[in-house]
Amino acid sequence: TYYKQFIVNNSQNCSTLLTNAIQEEVGYSCSIAPTTCVGLNADLNITNTGILNLDKDCEIFFNTSTDGQFSFFIEGKLNLTGANITATNSTNKFNLYSFTENPLTQGSYGNLSFANIKTQTNITDTNLKFKNIDIEKQLVLLNSSDIDEYIIDGGSLERKFRLNVSVYSLGSTVSFATVTARNRTNDLIFSKLTDMEGWKSNKGKIII
């Protein structure tokens, strides 16, 4: 079955999304004041030139009657400041496809529920709360909030963190000191040397 798509190829917010979706006959208002609720009977597609800004008074509701009926494609940027993105229920989820390394802007926060993770997805430096998620591909949470009520359905979930370490002795940095990290069961995670300035930074790379 073919479903329409609502395309975001510029900067839009919740209000403009609602207005344009109604105009294109793919959406409707499901608001309960003071929240702006955008009900969608279509896929939502943020292209590589698009950015969608959704604040705390915004909810995106995929009006699914079957599992995976509608999809959310992210190639551009999703900027969340408290918004809620959801679908009908745990049986009838929406599909989430990410085609960019970091689909959310740094510092984004909000809620995402009733979704199927259909592509490798990296969630970095955010406070996005996941609930009732089917993980069908790899989901990586880097310096991000945890996930509640999920099913591993052919995919994987990885939690990763950055670590910058400075080594001092008597107020001065120590060059070439060994920095070792172990987990709570004493398994070795890594062992590295500090540099000439006495600190070890992986310059944004994941080291745990």
How would you describe the overall organization of this protein?
By secondary structure, the protein is mainly beta. Helix content is 5%, strand content 51%. Strands 1, 2, 3, 4, 5, 6, 7, 8, 9, 10, 11, 13 and 15 form a 13-stranded mixed β-sheet that branches. The longest helix has 10 residues. It is elongated. It starts with a strand and ends in an 8-residue tail after the last strand. The C terminus is likely disordered.
Q: Brief description of this entry?
A:
This protein has one helix and 22 strands. With 208 residues, it is mainly beta. The strands form five sheets. Strands 1, 2, 3, 4, 5, 6, 7, 8, 9, 10, 11, 13 and 15 form a 13-stranded mixed beta sheet that branches. The chain has a three-stranded parallel beta sheet with strand order 12-14-16, with no helix packed on it.
Detail the poorly predicted runs.
202-208
Number of helices: 1
Rg is 21 Å
In total, how many beta strands? 22
Q: What share of the residues lie within helices?
A: under 10%
Pattern of helices and strands = EEHEEEEEEEEEEEEEEEEEEEE
Fraction in beta strands: over 45%
The shape is elongated
How would a crystallographer describe the biggest sheet?
Answer: 13 strands, mixed
Please state the oligomeric state of the protein chains shown.
single chain
Mean pLDDT: 89
Output the structural class: mainly beta
Distance between the termini: 43 Å
